[in-house]
Sequence to fold (304 residues):
Amino acid sequence: MLNEVVSYLDCRPGNTCIDCTLGGCGHARAICEKISPGGLFIGIDQDIDAIANAEKVLQNHSAEIHLFHGNFYRLPEILEKFNIASADGILLDLGVSLHQIEDSGRGFSFMRDEPLDMRMDVRSADTAASFVNNLAQNDLAKIFKEYGEERWAGQIARNIVNIRRQTAIRTSKQLAQIVVDSIPRRAASKQKIHPATRVFMALRIAVNRELERLASFMEYAVDFLNPGGRLCVLSFHSLEDRIVKQRLKALNKGCTCPPQLPRCVCGQKPQIRILTKKVVRPTDEEIAANPMARSTRLRAAEKI
Ligand SMILES: C[S@@+](CC[C@H](N)C(=O)[O-])C[C@H]1O[C@@H](n2cnc3c(N)ncnc32)[C@H](O)[C@@H]1O
Fold:
């Protein structure tokens, strides 16, 4: 949804814009073009590969560019480091990049036989293998159910625990096979997606603490926008989208008084205008060209 994002961000020459999830730099390149000449671009990613790629891809842009390897929930200290008080545009494009799935060698995909790692930031302590080999059965089942909405969560967690008693689960293929073997064949044949899709997504969300990081970021992101500045968030999961939607709604409402009070006593005013009254979804053509975009949801807001 490159065009929609660029249009909602509405970046202009000389603006300061922050891409909190550089990935392959598709959005970053478009933003840098819009803010040139005279613009300032801050690019963040917790994956060092994305930073290395951005150094190459963005090197010929005329905008002033600063890159930061780290988690976007640390936005306040990142901006302080670059001596920036606020921006005209902030973008979040959540989830996993094509590079991470296809070339990182970190086991994000059940289609490849790679070490079961799934960390976006390889400096963080816990890998998917450490979760799968050490968490209690109930905790594993909870992750698969809550983050993956996996119907067979309990059965899969039980089988993982049985197998790891005999041998450690070290690779993505090993885990994918355990999931396939845990789901009744008839149920699996009715699914449109690979049987391991939900378990892999759930584990990745847990390993990278994706929902917690997003919730922290959403608490203060708007504080770092200039009046008229815009925030765009692309999410891929209903739990992510719910965090974004509820926070934007609260910022749009302003008042935090209990509904039973006859009038407002908190005095808080709306901080944003919501630009996407309904969540924006990709067009059929975009889904046909890129099936991975099917579950993308875009929300945008402007600071008042
Ligand atoms: C879907 S890709 C972004 C794609 C990018 N917009 C493009 O046009 O190529 C998501 C990227 O965000 C990064 N990421 C996800 N969560 C993050 C977080 N909490 N902090 C920093 N980077 C994060 C991932 O490492 C990944 O590179």
Remarks:
- The radius of gyration is 21 Å.
- Residues 101 and 109 are 6 Å apart (CA to CA).
